[in-house]
Amino acid sequence: MLLVIMVAMTIESRRQVRRYFDTFGDAEWDRLSGDVAGRVSLEVHRRFLARFVRPGDRVLEVGAGPGRFTAELAALGASIVVTDLSPVQLALNEEHLRGGAAEASVERREVVDVCDTSRYADGEFDLVLAYGGPLSYAFEQAGDALRGLLRVTRPGGLVVGSVMSLLGVWRHFLPGVVTMAEDIGEDTNDLILRTGDLRHKGDQDGHVCRMFRHRDLAALAQAAGGEIVAAAASNWAALGDPGALAALEADPDRWARFLEHEIAACQEPGAVDGGTHILFACAAQNPPVY
């Protein structure tokens, strides 16, 4: 009975997520370009991804959104099956890439829930990309979802993705968290900080997700038959004073130096929990022979 209730909760939560991103529309495209911290985050994500993609790789992109990283995958020489839970986001993906060189690298686009990748064959892809936090929207099914992503990845391949960071979000958005706690009560806020589950806010129409500590993510990977082989925060120092960042960005040499330091800092073990997202690469522990 408990399992039935949990599955029902997840299905309704997924519907809420789809409605949210359908409504959010093209604002998702602007999220990584609208301010200086977003532009740093885009660079952190780009460089992390470039460590693992090789020319000729066939990639399943889950939660592709309007196409920021579809274009990056194409630039890295990958062939891409583009998927998203939101039909609106998939349409925007095609709109943003239409007429550009990246579109030639797209095999097809499909509406796919990260919790159900059963349409794909075992070991079909060289790499799965799950940026934008799709596993943060899988809730109780996150372990099964990651297991499914590992299943469709070839032996020796990787699942590269991101999840929302519980400790980093708490640190960066503390004023908003304090205000939220006043509205929902400290007991509910304590529950959110223990579980990372924003559904406890009780907001039926707003943004809900599950945030992770790095140790939670490592445990999830292990339970799914995988292991985290690389991780990074997004961002670290770039979550600080926007004025200082703007001054750096205005000087190309200083900006390039800052990005090198920032990306190195994001990979430090002590920093991984400190950004708004945790980036990861996950490999199967004991890959089957297909």
UniProtKB/TrEMBL annotation:
<dbReference type="GO" id="GO:0032259">
    <property type="term" value="P:methylation"/>
</dbReference>
<keyword id="KW-0489">Methyltransferase</keyword>
<keyword id="KW-0808">Transferase</keyword>
<feature type="domain" description="Methyltransferase">
    <location>
        <begin position="59"/>
        <end position="157"/>
    </location>
</feature>
<dbReference type="Pfam" id="PF13649">
    <property type="entry name" value="Methyltransf_25"/>
</dbReference>
<dbReference type="InterPro" id="IPR041698">
    <property type="entry name" value="Methyltransf_25"/>
</dbReference>
<keyword id="KW-0949">S-adenosyl-L-methionine</keyword>
<dbReference type="GO" id="GO:0008168">
    <property type="term" value="F:methyltransferase activity"/>
</dbReference>
<protein>
    <submittedName>
        <fullName>Methyltransferase domain-containing protein</fullName>
    </submittedName>
</protein>
<dbReference type="InterPro" id="IPR029063">
    <property type="entry name" value="SAM-dependent_MTases_sf"/>
</dbReference>
